Amino acid sequence: MTIISSIVVYVVSWWLIFFIALPIGVKPPHELGEKAQVGNEVGAPAKPYLGIKIFAATFGAGLATVLIYWVIISEIITFRNV
């Protein structure tokens, strides 16, 4: 696995994990008993927790990249002719 392919795996897995984490734990203001601020969408989350989700995506993508790298170098899954 080259450095370029490692970077590609990391970036793709980062975005995938980030988009999976986006809807987790968010609630619109009306579910919290508040009113949306003027100019905001009614269904927009009151507290999106983006910092935590960015950290989770970074850590998870690093873990996924290491796991994929290990699977490739140990040849658990291979596409080469034996």
Would you give an account of this structure?
It is a single chain. The model has no long low-confidence stretch (mean pLDDT 89). This protein has one domain. The relative contact order is 0.19. Helix content is 52%, strand content 0%. The chain has 82 residues and is an all-alpha fold.
N-to-C series of helices and strands = HH
* Large-scale geometry: rod-shaped
Cα gyration radius (Å): 19 Å
- The secondary-structure class comes to mainly alpha
Mean pLDDT: 89
In this structure, how is the largest beta sheet organized? none
Integer tally of domains: 1
Q: Please give the number of β-strands.
A: 0
Return residue spans where pLDDT drops below 50 for at least 5 consecutive residues.
Answer: none
Kindly state the percentage of residues in helix.
Answer: 40-55%
Which band does the percent of strand residues land in?
under 5%
Number of helices: 2
Provide a concise account of the structure shown.
The chain is mainly alpha-helical and 82 residues long. 52% of the residues lie in helices and 0% in strands. The chain has one domain (3-73).
List keywords for this structure.
82 residues, mainly alpha
Describe the secondary structure blueprint for this structure.
Elements: H1 3-21, H2 50-73
